[in-house]
Write the structure tokens for this entry.
Amino acid sequence: MTETPMERAFGAGAAAPAAETARRVAATMVAERERWPLWIPVCMGGGIALYFALPAEPAAWLGGFAVAVALAVAAGFRRRPAWLAVSLALLAASSGFAVAQLRAHSVAAPVLTTKLRPAVVIGRVVANEVRVNDHRLVLDRVRIEGLDADATPKRVRVSVRGQTGSVVPGQWVRLRAALSPPPGPAAPGAFDFARRAYFEGLGAVGFAFPPLHVVAPPDGEAGTDWAAALGRFRHAVTARLRAGLEGQTGAVAAALLTGERGAIPKPVLAAMRDAGLAHLLAISGLHVGLVAATLFFAVRALLALCESVALRYPIKKWAACAALAGTAFYLLLSGATIPTQRAFLMGALVLGGILLDRTGVSMRSVAWAATVVLLLHPESLLGPSFQMSFAAVIALVAFYEAWRDRRASWSALDAAPRRVLLYLVGVALMTLIASSATAPFVLYHFNRVAAYGLAANMLAVPITALWIMPWGIAALIVMPFGLEAFALAPMGWGIDAVIAVASTVSAWPGAVRLFPVMPMAGLALAAAGGLWLCLWRRRWRWLGVLPFVAGLLSPAFGDTPDVLVDGDAKLFAVRTADGALALSSRRTNRFGAGIWLRRNGQAAPAEWSENSDWLRCDATGCVYRAGGRVVALVRDGRALADDCRVADIVVSMVPVRRRCPSAQVTIDRFDLWRNGAHALYLDAGRVRVESVGDVRGARLWAVRRGGN
């Protein structure tokens, strides 16, 4: 008898079980056909992630070619449902790849490649963010002294000390500023600010020297577009809020209503973060939902007071229209961030469902919202805002779908105490579900977990939902009449209460737990497992629990570097015997050092012991011993004569112009200048070296020093 392909692959004895398993998987896939559309944004996200993960920029035609091939494959399998699902997934993934590639090329703009000495800069103010110690201006239509127009960035961002609060978006300013390219990652694999700046059109960042002068627009540059007008409006509202509520209370009020968080004092930000309440300061689904609900029920209640109107007209739909208009206004006022866009799209679908007499809360509405956001801003997939926002809402909607009937029976309870208990249980469940869903992304991006987040949210969320936001909406409504003070005062009481909760909870012992960096593979496992668990409805969904848990545990098995050196050749870090990082200086490059420590799960650096068994230093450098290897950390070229004869690895802050016979690896000032920060892993039997330049690859946003 001729062997079948299944028998040849698995053996005769295993062919039947394997075939039965394949048949069941195919049958289950077909039975879940109504859930297939939910995977469209997931597959799109996979294609987008593939584009950004490539080590080199792909050919411009590749995305369109992949879409064409996927369309042909889908057409060929249109009569075979299980294979059609696979081919449609490939089509969505190739579409995501093509959209990301198109977006990357469409936003291309000049970026500085080297630092500029202080020069005169003239530009139009796009944004003026008030911060604790300075103002941060974003300028467009820029002219820079001594720089050709073709090499001038489209936008620049500068920090200005002094009184610049009177400068409003739309005005033209002249200032003297020191500019540099947007900085790359502080360590291989760390957050890439330069990539985000590329997609925002920022080609330079820096600081300005006072004074700053408001000037007339250059010839041909007069007039204000809608973006500048909106920026001026947001700036004016923020100023009114901070004038009505002073200090940290006003800064938090501005964050809740206009999204301007720069003026919040660092201790308040730290307390909110450590208490697990940072999500209250980032405008997202909670805030947009509260705005929509407050406007909907308030308008409906007011219309119901008039009996003739309530009986003759669809006041519920009128209230939905008012809530939709109000949330659209709030979207623009808050700066239209990614979480706000997602929340607005979700809210619009819910309110649209009321207008069409249909249910708007469903996983399909989440999928369409994600698809729209990815089509408009595919780069947002890489940021914590998109990931955490959609992770939380997907998990909550999945729970809502699973417990819809039981929830309806609980909601029917009439007793007021039971309704209060139901609300508190709901807050606790929402916090647990959202915290669990976002945990992998919190670990990956922030390396920390707030241990008492549930307790803090049980107190702070009801205050925010039932007191702060309704008064905030009232303040915005009466602000045109100059009456906002009557609403801001009670709003401030609620904000002070939330800050008090954050300060108290964050001070509890063990409030924050730090973890080493999560591997990218761990994040991918957790995300895939969570999506599998939430998007399917049949029992096979529970297969997603295993990869989700494995992803959460992956930081314990991650690989952390033994030696780090920054791209400016000013700072070293080495691993001590107990696994902590010690820094060669606590004053140099504090920002980069903080990222190194956070990614190692540390709150503070270990002691740099210059006369220990593992580290010895003198005026010209240090010798570090770990894993049976000798690493020379050179500060002065005079040390190279000896180090090049005895060290296995030479890391030099000065150029190495001689051959180092003993060194397996040599990294000098030129390598650091070209490729940024380096990380060394002293694995058994070999030395692994990673640099920022190697990890980023040759991409559009990865501008190397001295050229592309």
The first strand starts at residue 116 and ends at 130.
